Amino acid sequence: MNSFYSFCVAFFVIGLILVLAIIGWWIFIHTSPFHVTVNKIPGPKFYLPLIGNALDLSGGLDHILNTFQFKWTKQYGGIYRIFVGTHCFIPVSSPVLLETILSSHKIIDKGISYEQLHPWLGQGLLTSSGDLWRSRRKLLTPAFHFSILNNFVEVFNEQSRILCGIFGELCQSSPDGKGEIDVYPLITRCSLDIICDAVMGTKMNAQVEDSDYVKAVYRIGQVFVERFQKPWLKNPRIFSLSALGREHDQLLKTLHGFTENVIRKRQETFVKQTHLKIEAEEAEAGIRGKGKLPLLDLLLKVSDDGRVLSAHDIRQEIDTFMSAGHDTTSSLIGWFLYSMASNPECQETVFNELQDVFGESERDCTQEDIPNLKYFDCCIKETLRIYPSVPAFERNVQEDVKIGEYLIPAGTTLQCLTLAIHRNPEFFPDPLAYKPERFFPEEAIGRHPYAYIPFSAGPRNCIGQRFALLESKVVLSSLLRRYKFELSPYAKPPIPSYHVILKSLTGINLVVSQR
Q1: Strand 87-92 to strand 413-416: parallel, antiparallel, or no bridges (unpaired)?
Q2: What pLDDT, in 10s, does the model give residues 482-501?
Q3: Closest CA to 319 of 200, 221, 238, 427
Q4: Tens of pLDDT along 234-276?
Q5: Mean of the pLDDT values across residues 192-211?
Q6: Which candidate, 92, 336, 455, 458, has a CA 20 to 30 Å from the CA of 394?
Q7: Nearest-angstrom CA–CA distance, 121 and 449
Q8: Is the pLDDT of residue 279 over 70?
């Protein structure tokens, strides 16, 4: 009897504490200056303490994409607020409001969600903030100068030829000369081979050999989004004890182990071969010696034996460019091929333009060929409009700022919804239709400059956008000159989803045939 009485008392006390906590939380979110300010911004209601709107985001990676980009933008407009856990996010899809954000030299710190990338990328260029970011940006910008990029066209062509050969074998193995395949894994491996050679000066051979690194890169993006959906895993200790956290740690071992091994070998070569130092000096002066100079060698040169960049700093930057440099181009190339297959008349126009430039020759694509492919360029832009490689990115607000009619308090995170911006019918009528002519010079006149931002904009725009576009154009021109792509009549259509990068849950299954 006494034990039952004690249980009832304990149950009552716990229940009373919970009720008082909920009442206190409700009073706090309705009276604190921070919450009073952010709640002036429209957004979905939330009732559960410590959870916020997280339950609205539970579901597949396609669900979180559609909820942020389409459901809530349609319901609340070009700016709204949500809470994931206790943190306030303010997604923005209005080009007018985005101009205030992206042109600012104060709102340049990456959002809180990027903290999940720190165990992998550390304080590399993508995730760093403040003076550290400014110094690294200044240090790395020369490596992406137009004259330097031309040195990597040979790498783009070399790996494109391997990819074309793989597609050729697929076609030849089919009785009717048509092969059906999910093209995305093949594209990803090609892009990894390119970025590995360009960034680290090392052959990965991902296109012809199985690689644990490739699998780890693909999976870790999914892990980041799954963690974001579960705010209770924000705590590093809780996350490390979870199954997802243990998988995350194993993936990091694979990713870091590969990079560290390559850097160690490259550093030994760099020390022994003094001609690399000469090539680095020539590259900085705009003079090209024989061969190409990978980014890693430039970092080793300026490191000054660890006084400017430590070995840890170098690994962070290499991991950053390996990650961002292959994933974004893979997304663009994959969605471009799907767009060509979905719009055969556009594919034929591109093919005819390629014929005008290359004829029947098998020669490589050069940087001088690119300006002559004007319709092809418009198709690239239209693909990035409908399927931007990075569908959203974030900025932390360090001090109160006025955006439109709303005061955004310090401590919030702004989310720039690229996908929703690009599909805004006010700026792109019939937004789901694939119309490359939108980017003809006469059609673009008067369009808001922030209505199309596939590589972000302002002082923190993508440093590698020229590299990504040049790589994509070389690879795609090589493929489209030789192969025709059609939709598979049997495979499921692609389902866009958020893996940090825009990817399809169902792959990109196409029918490939030789021209």
Answers
A1: parallel
A2: 999 999 988 889 999 988 89
A3: 200
A4: 888 899 999 999 999 999 999 999 888 888 888 777 666 645 4
A5: 87
A6: 336
A7: 31
A8: no
CB count in 10 Å sphere of residue 442: 6
Amino acid making up residue 57? L
| Side-chain-facing half-sphere of 225: CA atoms under 13 Å | 23
For the four alpha carbons of 330, 336, 342 and 347, in that order, the dihedral sign comes to: negative
Residues 6+ apart with CB under 8 A from 153: 364, 365, 366, 367, 470, 474
Q: What's the token pair of residue 425?
A: 């019918």
Could you say which architecture CATH assigns to the domain 32-514? Orthogonal Bundle (1.10)
Does the pLDDT of residue 74 top 60, yes or no?
A: yes
Q: Is the pLDDT confidence value at 305 over 80? A: no
Task: Give 202-210 contacts, CB < 8 A, sequence gap 24+.
Answer: 202/262, 202/265, 202/266, 207/159, 207/162, 207/163, 207/166, 208/162
- 331 vs 274: CA distance, rounded Å: 38
Contact predicate 106/131, CB 8 Å: no
CA distance 273 to 16: 73
Query: Side-chain half-sphere of 173: how many Cα atoms within 13 Å?
Result: 10
Q: How confident is the model at residue 286, as a pLDDT? A: 42
Listed residue (333, 328, 338) closest to 493, CA to CA: 338
Provide the whole-model pTM: 0.89
**Domain residue spans of the chain:** 32-514
Res 23: pLDDT: 67
Q: How far apart are CA 491 and CA 468, in angstroms?
A: 29
**Cα–Cα distance between 229 and 70 in angstroms, integer?**
18
Q: Which two tokens stand for residue 380?
A: 């690239």
